[in-house]
Amino acid sequence: MTIFVSKLVAEQTGRWEVYQGEKLPDKVRVNIDFEDLKNRIEYDDEYYLNIETTLKKTNQIYHSVFYESLKESATQLQLLNFLDQDLPNENLTTNSVKVSKRKLEEIISNYDELTSAMKGTDLEQYLV
Length: 128
Fold this sequence. Notes:
- By secondary structure, the chain is mainly α.
- It has helices at residues 2-13, 34-57, 73-82, 104-107, 111-118, and strands at residues 18-19, 96-97.
- The model has no long low-confidence stretch (mean pLDDT 90).
């Protein structure tokens, strides 16, 4: 759900990435249609499953990483090991910053309605 919210915020602000020192977009609120969210999650799940299936069928090695964990030392170490790279002398850093550190309920204008619709469905796991 956070990926879907990020996409909506980026579409609304026109900012897909922000770097240190740049002005962050104003506090945006988005309205989420339950069916749109459900369809997007189903699409994404199928998309990534197809990629993984193809990689396995063609005997290609791969390492799955979640974008949200890229700044974690353990994830960086796993990636470096997978890429057969030496550990750097200093921590890996990036100049990009998170566009919004607010909680989903502060960004989603219909949060209560959305969480009610998600309860009891497969999407309930995405409630953070």
